[in-house]
Design brief:
Layout lengths: L6 H33 L4 H29 L1 H18 L6 H15 L2 H12 L2 H33 L1 H22 L11 H7 L15 H4 L3 H32 L8 H26 L4 H16 L11 H29 L2 H35 L3 H26 L11
Helix pairs in contact: 1-3, 1-5, 1-6, 1-7, 1-10, 2-3, 2-4, 2-14, 3-4, 3-5, 3-7, 5-6, 5-14, 6-7, 6-11, 6-13, 10-13, 10-14, 10-15, 11-12, 11-13, 12-13, 12-15, 14-15
């Protein structure tokens, strides 16, 4: 009997490192916020507007990038994405004020939008259904590793070389990844290093074996309830993760006087917990499927448990020490990443791979639209309560919103598509 190969996991490793770089580049500004807001005299609203610019560009680009990747393929599409975002990340060093920072964030958003449509489509191409959530959880944990690496790297670079070099050094890493991607990646049907046994295993539960199928127009996808389930699932939950990325460092600084000019153990612990959540969340639904559960049931109850795990973050208002807050936020952030691994997987369950990248783009766009409005709320709340002399009350309201978002999203998803049935898309 021929042994099934493991080349697909090498592809997963490439996705992991790309996502690590993606989140490292977007996390830099959150860690530099206290320094930059003093140098450029930013208010919380100014900073929220910079974040909103990134989110708006990211949303627009996601909608387009998904369709582009479905047409030109993951190899070239991913390459274009990382070149654009790496150049944009480095160009932050040229910014001279609020407007120029917003412009650079917009360019970064345009490029970074290609990461998840390309990565999820790659998972759909390279993994059978019972391994997709785990593969997604593994590569998605790169977001957490990037967030862990940033609090270590950025304060050191800031202290030695200044904030400009923090953007340049982190942005340049993407070009190293590009070399490995270009030489080691190809779709399964064209990959010379892939054995027949592994190819057959990858495609064992798929109707499509042809990697060159006709892509689906993204506008057509809006006619399916499966698209709307993914749409609302992302819209209500992605903004919470953006909040953790862009405001968590300043929350610890303002609430507990954390010194962000030094490597932060507290932030490292939070983002390390998310790595466990991402991989563990992907493993759980795959484990249940391997135990004989239907895939929709495994995803449904896994995601419900993750939604409930976010609820305790509402208690952050009662934290008297930073470590109590770290515990609650670590649980919520880990649950988000576990949720994320599974919501991406339900997209690959509900759609044929010819439509996956477009659907991921649509859902990502929805998440970014939510990510546009949520920073408006965050910025206005924090500025209001800062003027009243108690910014913590603003954070308390935000944590109430965070704690309820996932349960609401879960209800909407499973009201629209109770069994995650596959959309019947005619060519």
């Amino acid at each position: 009997m021929e042994t099934i190969g493991k080349y697909r996991w090498k592809i997963c490793a490439l996705l992991f490192f790309a996502t690590t770089i993606n989140y490292l580049d977007r996390q830099v500004i959150g860690l530099l916020k206290p320094v930059l807001e003093k140098e450029f005299d930013w208010s919380e609203t100014d900073y929220s507007n910079i974040v909103i610019t990134f989110q708006a560009a990211y949303a627009i680009s996601l909608l387009g990038f998904g369709g582009i990747i479905d047409r030109i393929g993951t190899k070239l599409g991913y390459s274009i994405s990382i070149v654009v975002w790496s150049i944009a990340a480095m160009m932050h060093a040229l910014a001279t004020g609020t407007m120029s920072f917003a412009f650079m964030r917009g360019l970064l958003g345009l490029g970074e939008a290609g990461n998840f449509p390309a990565a999820i489509k790659t998972v759909a191409e390279w993994f059978p259904k019972n391994e997709r959530a785990l593969a997604t959880g593994i590569f998605n944990s790169g977001a957490n590793i990037g967030a862990v690496a940033a609090p270590i790297m950025v304060p050191w670079i800031l202290g030695v070389y200044g904030w400009e070099m923090a953007f340049i050094a982190t942005g340049a890493i993407g070009f190293i990844w590009l070399i490995f991607w270009w030489f080691y990646y190809e779709v399964p049907s064209k990959h010379q290093s892939l054995s027949k046994a592994e190819f057959d295993y990858i495609h064992a539960d798929m109707e499509e074996k042809d990697d060159n199928v006709t892509p689906v127009r993204w506008s057509k996808l809006f006619g399916f309830k499966q698209t709307w389930a993914f749409f609302f699932g992302k819209m209500f939950t992605d903004p919470i993760w953006w909040f953790f990325l862009f405001w968590l460092p300043s929350y610890f600084s303002e609430r507990f006087h954390l010194d962000l000019k030094k490597p932060s153990l507290e932030l490292i612990i939070v983002y390390t917990a998310t790595t466990i959540g991402s991989i563990g969340g992907g493993w759980l639904s795959g484990y249940l499927i391997n135990k004989g559960w239907p895939s929709f049931k495994a995803r449904k109850w896994s995601m419900f448990s993750f939604a409930i795990a976010v609820v305790p973050i509402m208690l952050a208002r009662y934290c008297d020490t930073i470590w109590q807050a770290v515990g609650l936020i670590s649980l919520a952030a880990a649950a988000h990443q576990a949720w994320s691994a599974n919501i991406y997987s339900i997209a690959t369950d509900m759609f044929p791979k010819k439509a996956v990248s477009s659907v991921i783009g649509i859902g990502g766009m929805a998440g970014s639209v939510g990510g546009i409005f949520f920073p408006m709320i965050v910025g206005s709340l924090l500025d209001k309560y800062k003027l009243l002399g108690n910014i913590n009350d603003g954070y308390n309201i935000i944590f109430l919103l965070c704690g309820s978002a996932y349960v609401l999203a879960w209800v909407i998803i499973y009201a629209l598509v109770p069994t995650l049935e596959t959309a019947k898309i005619d060519d």
